[in-house]
Design goal:
Length: about 350
């Protein structure tokens, strides 16, 4: 019996020891599995992030290479055709189309209205002429200006109907108008020489004006129209010999600075020739008719009375300059000169 008890105790101790040993070994194993699992997940997440970054970098690098390659192609195409390749192959979207239409609409809205004048002085641009007219109008005829031989500029487009020629602005050396014709009007002489000529538009307007004057009982005659630069040189030098430079400069233009050379100017008198190109012409009925009606046909009294300090010349009621009806009527109605009409807005070639 005693032996049996001892055996039982030993068996219990052995079983208990075995259980204790099993439990001791099981817990670390389970905990170990948990401990090992956490870093495995962390590492997996880290690897996934690294992989995503790598993919993104590769995509960026690929996109950059594609962009660089496309840029090189565009440059190559541009070099061949002098225009971006995109302009040749890209179809405009509706947004771009609308943008283009809006741009065209704005451009159309800004376009100045047409006038019967050919262009702006010197440039021949109608847009510039409109802009200059508005600028000069704001000055009320008191725009700053320069009109002296000490400053000389060559006009850029001498063929403009409203070209400004005076002591500051001169015509190109040797300039000859391209469309000189003989107007069908009476002159104070019978010879068919250069001074009977005028440019075509001015000649037509002159014929209409002479006809209108005749209907009003006024008989006009031409005295001197176009003059070449060489002819003006001879006249001016003769006046200098006679009266000196200072005096000559008050009534005669130096070569290249004469409005007569434009083919747009003519001296007019009565058909009798009395007081032709003389101060006494101012009191004649012909002069009074011209002062009142010349602008209706596109002419102005170029050197009006009281404006000598602006024009640089004495009052010449016989000296008519064709500028077109729009400018002529504004200049006459405001009692200003062509210098004041344009103000500073007179583009030149140099």
């Amino acid at each position: 019996m005693r032996k049996y008890v001892v055996t039982s105790i030993v068996a219990v101790i052995m079983v208990g020891g075995a259980i204790w040993a099993w439990d001791k070994n099981r817990t670390p194993a389970a905990e170990g599995a948990v401990v090992e699992k956490t870093p495995a997940l962390t590492q997996q997440k880290s690897n996934q992030e690294k992989e995503a970054v790598s993919v993104k970098d590769n995509a960026s690098e690929t996109a950059k290479k594609d962009h660089d390659a496309e840029s090189e192609d565009t440059k190559s195409e541009t070099g061949k055709n002098d225009e971006p390749a995109a302009q040749k192959v890209e179809k405009p979207t509706s947004e771009k189309t609308n943008s283009t239409k809006n741009t065209d609409a704005k451009a159309t809205a800004k376009k100045p209205e047409k006038s019967d004048t050919a262009s702006h002085p010197a440039t021949g641009s109608k847009t510039n002429n409109e802009a200059s007219s508005k600028k000069s109008s704001k000055t009320g005829g008191n725009a700053e200006f320069v009109n002296t031989y000490s400053v000389e500029h060559v006009v850029a487009n001498p063929e403009s109907v409203d070209v400004l020629v005076n002591k500051t602005y001169r015509l190109p050396s040797g300039y000859v108008p391209p469309d000189l014709v003989y107007p069908n009007v009476p002159f104070t002489f019978s010879e068919k020489v250069d001074k009977r000529k005028m440019r075509k538009d001015a000649a037509i307007a002159l014929e209409e004006m002479f006809e209108a004057a005749e209907e009003d009982g006024i008989s006009l005659a031409g005295v001197s129209g176009y003059r070449s630069e060489s002819r003006q040189t001879t006249l001016y030098n003769n006046y200098v010999k006679k009266d000196g430079v200072n005096a000559a400069d008050t009534y005669s233009a130096r070569p290249g600075h004469s409005e007569h050379q434009t083919g747009l100017t003519i001296d007019v008198s009565g058909s009798s020739g009395k007081c032709a190109a003389e101060s006494c012409f101012a009191g004649t009925k012909e002069a009074k008719w011209l002062a009142k009606h010349a602008s209706e046909y596109g002419f102005i009294i170029r050197y009006p009375e009281g404006k000598e300090s602006i024009t640089g010349y004495k009052y010449e009621p016989w000296h008519l300059r064709y500028v077109g009806t729009k400018i002529a009527q504004e200049v006459t109605s405001r009692s200003i000169t062509l210098e004041q009409y344009f103000g500073k807005a007179v583009p030149v070639s140099k």
